[in-house]
Write a structure and sequence with these properties.
The complex is a heterodimer of chains A (308) and B (302).
Chain A: E1 11-14, H1 18-29, E2 34-37, H2 41-45, E3 52-53, H3 57-63, E4 66-69, H4 74-82, E5 96-99, H5 105-116, E6 121-124, E7 127-128, H6 130-136, E8 139-144, H7 147-157, E9 161-168, H8 172-200, H9 205-213, H10 220-231, H11 241-258, H12 263-277, H13 290-297, H14 302-306
Parallel strand pairs in A: 1-2, 1-4, 2-3, 4-5, 5-6, 8-9
Antiparallel strand pairs in A: 7-8
Chain B: E1 6-9, H1 13-24, E2 30-32, H2 36-44, E3 48-49, H3 53-59, E4 62-65, H4 70-78, H5 83-86, E5 92-95, H6 101-113, E6 117-120, E7 123-124, H7 127-132, E8 135-140, H8 143-156, E9 157-164, H9 168-196, H10 201-208, H11 216-226, H12 237-254, H13 262-273, H14 284-291
Helix pairs in contact in B: 9-12, 9-14, 10-11, 12-13
Classes of the chains: A alpha/beta (308), B alpha/beta (302).
């Protein structure tokens, strides 16, 4: 597309939280003009001075033909697109929405139908690997939508991601993202539980992770998250327990919608509900704090388990 | 310890392969199995046939056990003409079965009373690796004892990991298999959701393997066995059920419950209840498809 990287044709970003802010930086770095909006003025204030601040989603869509939405949850997606002053009001036949929120396929199809009435197009493009990967431009993106719309979205995704996969029709990207988060949550909890039992048999965390990662029991939590955020003692993965619960809810809702029982996914959600129901827990707590929470719950000696 | 005689009790798929591997390496083992045909077969290849576990232990400085479960390990060790009756003080016994670590710890006390050293050293990678000497071996027990038997284990495995004190090898093995089963069943559940949401199963597996939800199961086993529906892992479902049951019992005995992982041993028990114990472990896909009313194949487009 000739529009790509043209300084006259800005890209819009709606939702400039942790991830959205990084997206504006990556777009600036790739030579795009950026216009952005967030319902929180403080989030807008934190952006690079070269980013144009919009008064609302409609203004973003009226200015930029390509708009990335990166908001908190499916309800926020509906609000920023269909609500008063929403993106829909500024959208037209030239508009392409790249929907990156970890949202539900149902929401994506609903807003897609409304956008289609103005001639606007949408792809769902949820990302994985977290904020550190966004900063480096090494995200993984799962795309849902029409092939021609996916092709139009590509110039805006390559500055962000190294792995971009078109997985199916509109909503398919969000379905994969939900399943991914469900498996991540299950594997994280299952690993913490197994580490606790291993400790009771005097298999230390280091040895146990070595065994798992060389064998059939390994997963991304044992190879990446436990070494980086548990063995190091940092418990700072730049992803929150509140977001994980939100994603597990999206996965549960999707499973119910399509009629697929989710024995593991729903139990993982309830374990996050247990964590977040604690009086001193907050949604901003790092996701990895579920690990010491479980160790405490299961009667494991945290010092021994963490190998510290 | 080149002059130390090696004994091997249990000549099944794994033990038989290990015996042949040792013979190839010029270490003719003393062997026993309850199946005398298997003993005779190996005697023809150069092994020394023995009439009882006690006889093996009496002639061998290092006795390896490769048996189906802890009940048989206990019978072979403690029974009349068992290993304990024959093993001289200073001998080493290595249980290479996938045993229950609590049984291993109890046997460890009996061996210690007799002055016999005992290690647990469960293996993985299957029968071919046993025959070729390329097994992965997880060892629990004293480091000095491991150092003594290491020359023997080096003939059998390429990756030998010291997991911790006695029982640690069996504990780590059961928990590894339990975690692999949890990752497997959860991935099946997740892929069923994706497929019902209209995503092609092969694309779903490729996509998850780019994400944080990936595991050895999604990365290696789904492309190898589950997507093409090739039920040929040569590992019986009943053996995986046993490993998951051991992990669940370990959780119960140590007072460290598995809120999520408990599902796995329960689902495997359902599979065994349905008569799938002798089937290939990969057929657990068929159980999950039935229980969750789904199928790991592309949905017809509406």
């Amino acid at each position: 597309m000739s529009a790509a990287r043209s300084s006259e044709t800005p890209v819009g970003v709606i939702g400039t939280g942790q991830l959205g802010k990084v997206l504006t930086d990556r777009f600036l770095g790739a030579g795009y003009q950026v216009i952005a909006y967030d319902i929180d003025p403080a989030a807008l204030a934190r952006l690079h001075p070269d980013v144009t601040r919009a008064s609302g989603p409609a203004e973003v869509a009226a200015t930029a033909p390509t708009v990335v939405t990166c908001v908190s949850d499916p309800a926020a997606v509906r609000d920023c697109i269909l609500g008063a002053g929403g993106l829909l009001g500024g959208a037209g036949a030239q508009t392409l929405v790249i929907e990156m929120t970890t949202s539900s396929p149902e929401t994506t199809r609903d807003v897609g139908a409304a956008l289609a009435r103005t001639g606007a197009a949408i792809v769902d493009a949820p990302v994985s690997r977290g904020v550190p990967a966004a900063i480096e431009g090494t995200l993984s993106v799962w795309l849902g939508g029409e092939k021609s719309d996916v092709d139009r979205a590509m110039p805006y995704l390559t500055p962000l991601a190294t792995d971009i996969l078109h997985v199916g029709p509109l909503g398919a990207g969000h379905a994969i993202k939900a399943v991914n988060m469900m498996l991540m949550g299950v594997n994280l909890i299952a690993t913490a539980e197994a580490v606790a039992v291993a400790g009771a048999y005097r298999v230390g965390l280091d040895a146990f992770l070595d065994v798992l990662n060389a064998s059939s029991g390994g997963n991304f939590m044992t190879s990446n998250h436990f070494p980086r955020f548990v063995q190091s003692g940092s418990y700072r993965s730049a992803f929150s327990a509140g977001l994980m619960r939100k994603d597990l809810r999206v996965a549960r809702d999707l499973a119910e919608e399509v009629g697929a029982p989710a024995l593991y996914g729903t139990r993982a959600l309830e374990i996050y509900n247990m964590y977040l129901a604690q009086p001193d827990a907050t949604a901003d707590d790092d996701n990895m704090l579920i690990v010491p929470f479980l160790w405490n719950l299961l009667g494991a000696d945290q010092g021994t388990e963490a190998g510290s | 310890m080149t002059d130390v005689k090696v004994g091997l009790i249990g000549l099944g798929a794994m033990g038989g392969g290990m015996a042949r591997r040792l013979i190839d390496q010029g270490v003719a083992p003393a062997v026993f199995d309850i199946d005398t045909d298997k003993v005779a077969e190996l005697a023809e290849l150069g092994a020394r046939p023995c009439a009882s576990p006690a006889e093996v232990a009496a002639v061998a400085g290092v006795t390896l056990l490769s048996l189906p479960n802890s009940r048989l390990v206990e019978a072979v060790v403690l029974g009349p003409d068992g290993v304990l009756a024959g093993a001289p003080a200073g001998a080493v016994v290595v249980d290479m079965s996938s045993s229950d670590p609590d049984s291993t710890l109890a046997l460890g006390e009996r061996f210690a009373e007799a002055g016999v050293e005992f290690l647990d050293a469960p293996v993985s990678r299957g029968a071919r690796a046993a025959r070729e000497g390329t097994m992965s071996i997880l060892v629990g027990g004293a480091a000095e004892t491991l150092a003594r038997v290491r020359p023997v284990l080096d003939q059998l495995g390429t990756d030998i990991v010291h997991a911790g004190p006695l029982g640690a090898g069996h504990a780590a093995k059961a928990l590894n298999n339990h975690m692999s089963a949890t990752a497997l069943l959860a991935a099946m559940e997740g892929f069923f959701v994706a497929v019902k949401a209209g995503v092609d199963p092969e694309l779903a597996v490729t996509a998850i393997n780019q994400g944080s939800g990936r595991s050895h199961m999604t990365d290696v086993r789904f492309p190898l066995y589950y997507l093409p529906r090739r039920f040929t892992s040569n590992f019986a479902l009943g053996l995986m059920e046993k490993d998951c049951r051991i992990a669940a019992e370990m959780a119960a005995r140590s007072g460290r419950p598995m809120l999520l992982g408990a599902l796995t041993s329960q689902l495997y028990r359902v599979a065994v209840n349905r008569g799938m114990g002798a089937a290939d472990n990969t057929r657990v896909l068929e159980l999950m498809e039935e229980l969750l009313s789904a199928r790991l194949s592309a949905q017809p487009t509406q």
